[in-house]
Amino acid sequence: MNSSEYFKKAREIMPGGVSSPVRAIQPYPFYTMKGEGSRLFTADGESLLDCCGAYGPLILGHACPPVKDAIRKALDNGWLYGTPTPAEIDLAEILIADFPSIEMVRFVTTGSEATMAAIRLARAYTKKPDIVKIEGGFHGAHDGVLVQAGSGCTTLGQPDSAGIPADVVKHTRQVPYNDPESLVSVLEKNPDSIAAMIMEPVMGNIGPILPKIGYLQEVRKITAEHDVLLIFDEVISGYRVGIGGAQQYYNVTPDITTLGKIIGGGLPLSAFGGKREIMELIAPAGPVYQAGTFSGNPLSLAAGVAALSHIHEMPGMYSALDAATSRIGEACQDKGGSFVKLGSMFKFFFRSSPPENYSQAKESDTIIFRAFWEKMLAKKIFLPPSQFETNFLSLAHSDSDVEYLSSAYASCLSV
Ligand SMILES: *Cc1c(COP(=O)(O)O)cnc(C)c1O
């Protein structure tokens, strides 16, 4: 069967034909049979240069040999025990060594679970009910963070999905990114109710959008002054921006950090961590309940340890990736939009200047984006199918891949 036939069948038995909404490319998504290095191989016999990287985890590329070997080795011993395993200590030690703000870790399976638990933990620790998030910020698909942006910094949140009670999202307030004054104003108007501010230090789910100089430091100072915990959602930026994540890159210390994507080496694994005093509230050490059948599953841990160890063995890796996206950026100069990058994350926005927040990002021309995206696909390049999803480069992208990408950008943006 080809992709079109698969999708026709899938649509009958799965809502929208997919397991996650962004994958429902129209008129039909391509179906992947295999991933290797920088490429995806489709059911239609095509080989595509992949700049989606499964939306973030695959910084080492597809089927990276040391990760594959580690999974194979773990597989021989079975794949789920329902007991502790030594590998979770190994991975926890790596995370704690790489993130000075993390003294203790809890492993979960998805990033959504990590942010959900981190918020619950912050509420328990501060004994306060409400949270602040960034307008347009994405922290997974659970009720408290699925709150629509654009409704103004001091208004109560509107749910971003059917099925979420207004009673739930009234506890979620929003402020625009890169706007410390709005944060001060929300915290001053709600002096005793805000438990935590949750944010991606670099907005990875809409671009990327980068912090203005000093913004994250300001947020740290403001939250500390108001006894509000700062949760950095580094599910994308952890090990993507560098070892130690965006908190190390920008030198700002959060109270709680969530990690996911890269830390599982491509298998489902996420985590949250922070100061010992806070983390010891988590069950069974403390009263904040959190649990999961697949938490810390042996295969994901093996993949994660192998991936992070491999990353540690390549100190030049991040600057090489940064140089590669710079080359793509050069090819995008004077093309009527704005190229934004941080290390291996990059995006061309169809907007005259780089967006500083969600409402500016939303001004991008999504119709031109779509036409551009199709032109790139015709050149056998798979970009995430949205103006608002970050492109990712991996270590598996060769010099000639980067060369090819740069010239494809230059020509597809020229018409
Ligand atoms: C992907 C992502 C999540 C959700 O992670 P899942 O594993 O998809 O549940 C949460 N926060 C950020 C910043 C993410 O990029």
TrEMBL record:
GO terms for biological process: protoporphyrinogen IX biosynthetic process. The modification N6-(pyridoxal phosphate)lysine is found at residue 261. CDD domains: OAT_like. It catalyses: (S)-4-amino-5-oxopentanoate = 5-aminolevulinate. InterPro entries: 4pyrrol_synth_GluAld_NH2Trfase (IPR004639), Aminotrans_3 (IPR005814), Aminotrans_3_PPA_site (IPR049704), PyrdxlP-dep_Trfase (IPR015424), PyrdxlP-dep_Trfase_major (IPR015421), PyrdxlP-dep_Trfase_small (IPR015422). It is found in: Cytoplasm. GO terms for cellular component: cytoplasm. The keyword Glycoprotein does not apply. Keywords: Cytoplasm, Isomerase, Porphyrin biosynthesis, Pyridoxal phosphate. Its main location: cytoplasm. Pfam families: Aminotran_3. Its cofactor is pyridoxal 5'-phosphate. Gene3D superfamilies: Aspartate Aminotransferase, domain 1, Type I PLP-dependent aspartate aminotransferase-like (Major domain). Pathway: Porphyrin-containing compound metabolism; protoporphyrin-IX biosynthesis; 5-aminolevulinate from L-glutamyl-tRNA(Glu): step 2/2. Its EC number is 5.4.3.8. GO terms for molecular function: glutamate-1-semialdehyde 2,1-aminomutase activity; pyridoxal phosphate binding; transaminase activity. Belongs to the class-III pyridoxal-phosphate-dependent aminotransferase family. HemL subfamily. HAMAP family: HemL_aminotrans_3. This is Glutamate-1-semialdehyde 2,1-aminomutase. It comes from Methanospirillum stamsii. The lineage of its organism: Archaea, Methanobacteriati, Methanobacteriota, Stenosarchaea group, Methanomicrobia. The gene is hemL.
